[in-house]
């Protein structure tokens, strides 16, 4: 019956016992939120704004590494002009990065 002797001591420290028990779990969740979840949400937000800001004439790079200029754009698809003859159709979400916007390309030609 040695385990009954520790029972009153465990009941006396109710709040402290819960803090010791659940504190590390809460701390671990807070650390994971600031190290993993929050940066991922920011990255998703910037990607979404980049995809919504695409316009005709932008030079883009797809997820597969294809470089091209946007010839046509709709809500969910884009048509890339790879060279003078070749035009390829992609989903809008396949764009990985914008290498030059249409305004920057116009300034380069001047």
Automatic annotation (TrEMBL):
Superkingdom of this protein's organism: Bacteria
Instruction: Output a single Gene Ontology CC term carried by this record.
Output: plasma membrane
Q: Quick check: keyword Membrane in the entry?
A: yes
Q: Topologically, how does it sit relative to the membrane? A: Single-pass membrane protein
Q: Keyword Transport: yes or no?
A: yes
Per the UniProt record, which residue ranges are transmembrane?
20-37
Pfam family of the protein (one): YajC
Question: Which keywords does this chain's UniProt record carry?
Answer: Cell membrane, Membrane, Protein transport, Translocation, Transmembrane, Transmembrane helix, Transport
Sequence similarity: Belongs to the YajC family.
Q: Check the record and name the PANTHER family matching this protein.
A: SEC TRANSLOCON ACCESSORY COMPLEX SUBUNIT YAJC (PTHR33909)
Q: Which NCBIfam families match?
A: yajC
Protein name, per record: Preprotein translocase subunit YajC
Organism, as annotated: Paenibacillus thalictri
């Amino acid at each position: 019956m040695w385990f009954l002797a520790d029972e009153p001591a465990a009941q006396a420290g109710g709040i402290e016992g819960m803090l010791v028990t659940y504190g590390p779990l809460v701390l671990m969740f807070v650390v994971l939120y600031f190290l993993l979840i929050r940066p991922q949400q920011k990255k998703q937000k910037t990607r979404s704004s980049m995809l919504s800001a695409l316009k005709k004439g932008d030079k883009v790079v797809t997820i597969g590494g294809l470089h091209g200029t946007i010839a046509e754009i709709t809500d969910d698809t884009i048509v890339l002009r790879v060279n003078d003859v070749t035009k390829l159709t992609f989903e809008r979400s396949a764009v990985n990065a914008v290498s030059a916007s249409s305004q920057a390309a116009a300034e380069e030609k001047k």
